[in-house]
Amino acid sequence: MAPDPSDTAPISPSKEHIECKELDVDVEFGGIEARNKLERRLLLKLDLHMSMLVLIYILNFIDRNNASAARTQLTTDLHLEGPQYATLLSILYVGYIIMQVPSNMFLNYIKKPSLYMPACMVIWGVISALTGITTNFVGALLTRFFLGFIEAAFFPGAVLLISKWYKRTEIGSRLAILYCGNMISNAFGALIASGILANMDGIRAQAAWRWLFYIEGSLTVTVAIMAVFVLPDFPTTTKWLTDDERRLALKRMEEDVGVGDQLETENGGFGYGFYLAIADWKVWWIATLLIAQVIALSFTGYFPTLTATLGYNPTASLLLVAPPWIYAAIFTFVWTRHSDKTQERFLHMSISNLIGIIGSLISICTMNTAARYFSLFLLAQSNSASVLMTTWESNTFARPPSKRAVCFSLINAVQQLGSISGSYVWPTNWGPTYRHSYTIVIACNVIVITMTWILRQHLKTLNKKLEGEEQEQGIEEKGFRYVL
Length: 484
What we know:
The protein is mostly helical. It has 20 helices and no strands. The radius of gyration is 23 Å and the shape is globular.
C-alpha cells in the first residue's frame, strides 16, 4: 500500500498560489463581512433547493421497498415459491449496478441534474406503478429489474450534486439529511403501506398490494414534475444564482482543496475520469468494505419481517417498523454533525457498527419481545456508518470532478453486490430467531471495522507526505489533508 504520487500531486497548493490568495482574498466580495453575509444567503438558498433531494429519496426507497411491505400478499397472489421472493428483491440491484457509472458520467457531462433526475424519476414512477398489474413471477421480475436500472441515476447523482456545492466541513451533515430520507421512507413507508393494505383490498376488484404500487408510483411522478423547478444544477449552470453567488460558490470549492473545481473537469477528455477512478486502488478497497457494510445492513429490506417475529398482527407489525427508523434518523443526523465538527470518520463509523453488533447479539441470545424490539433500534442506527462512509468518499476523492463522479457511482454500483447477497441472508426457514442471519451481520461489521482502520492508516501516511512536501516548498499555510 505504498503511497501513489497521484494521491497528492493534483491538489497540493503551490507557494505562488498561497501568496496570491493572501493578497486578494474576499476583496471581490466587498470584504470579509460582506462575503460572510453573501455566503450565508447562498447556503440558505442552496439548502432550500437541495431539500427536494430528501423528498425524492423518500419516494425512491418507498418504490423500492414496496415489495417488502406487501410480502405476504405479493407472494400469495404471484404464487412465488422457494427463493423467488428473494430473487425479486435482488434483481433490482442488478439493473442498479449496470447503470450507475454511465449515468453519473453522463450527468457530469451534461451538468443538468434539474432535468436529468426528474426525467429518470418519472420513468421509475411509471415502472413502479406497472408492478401492480403483474400476474406472475416473470412479470414482477422484469419490472423490478428495470426499476433498479432507472433508479440507479438518483443516489450517486445526488451525492455528486451535493459535492459540487458544499465544503468538507459541510458535506457530512447534508448527506446525513439526505440519508434521513432513506430512514424516513422505512418509517413512514411502512405506515402508508399498513393503511393501504388494511383498507383498500378489493376496491375496484384489485388486491390491496396492487393499490400500493399504483398510488405510490403515481405520487413519484407528481413529485418529479415539481422537482424540475426546484433542483439546482451545477455552480456554472444554475440559472437562479446571481453573479456574486456563482463566483462565491466556485471560490468556496477552490478554497476547500486548494484548486478550482471546474478547472480540472474533463481535462483529459470524457473518459479520463473513468480511467483515474479504476486505476486508484482506494476505490476498490472502499467498494469492497462497503459490500460487507451493505450485507451488515441487509436487515433493512426485511424489517417488516423482523417486526412480525414479535408476535403481533400484520397491521401492528408494520406500525412497529416506524419508531426504530425515526430514532435512527435522529441519531444519524446528530452523529454525522459531530463527525463533521470534529473532522473524524473512522471512530464515528466504527462506534455505529459496534452498536449494531450489540443489537445482533441481543437478537441471537433471546426471544423476549421487549429485548428483540430494543435490538431493532440498535440495528437501525448502524445505517449512520453508511452515511459516514459516503462522506468519507467525498473527502477522499476530492478532485478532479470527472474522477469524483465516477468514484461515487462505481463504488455505489459495486457495493450493490452486497445488496444482492443480502437478499438471501434472511430466508424464512431461518426464522423466527434468524440467528444465522444475525451472525452474518456481526461478521460483516467486523470486516468493515478492520478494513476502515487500514484505510485510515493509509490516509494518515498520505497526510504526512503532504505535510513533508509543504515543508520542502516553504509553504506555511496548511493545505489539503485527507479526513481520517
